[in-house]
Amino acid sequence: MKVLQAQMKTEQVIFSFTGTLPAQSFHEFAQHRAKRLSLQLETQFQNNTKARMQVTGQTDLVDAFEMALSLGPPDCVVRDVQRIATQSEEGKSS
Fold it and tell me: Which residues contact 24 (CB under 8 A, 6 or more apart)?
């Protein structure tokens, strides 16, 4: 039962990415990854050097999103990622 609960834990996280982030390609990459991981994504701010995104979904998939965006598309170089957990809920799926 604990394994099932861990799988259903959801969280809401704000990620702040900095680096060389061509706005269009980084945004499209983020949207594509969020969709593939069944995450809700809200881009709060983005330019060519910074992006702030709120992601909501299953905890391990939020972690996968962070890893994917840290690697980024070929034309992006992520130099730093700040992660702020804003909400965590057990037993609820997104």
Answer: none
Structural domains of the chain, with CATH: 2-89 (3.30.70.100)
Q: What is the pLDDT along the chain (94 residues), one digit of tens a residue?
A: 455 555 578 999 999 999 999 999 999 999 999 999 999 999 999 999 999 999 999 999 999 999 999 998 999 999 999 999 787 655 444 3
How far apart are the C-alpha atoms of 55 and 66, rounded to whole Å? Answer: 10
Instruction: Give the three-class secondary structure for 70.
Output: helix
CA 93, 42, 70, 26 torsion: positive or negative?
Answer: positive
Write down the pTM of the prediction: 0.83
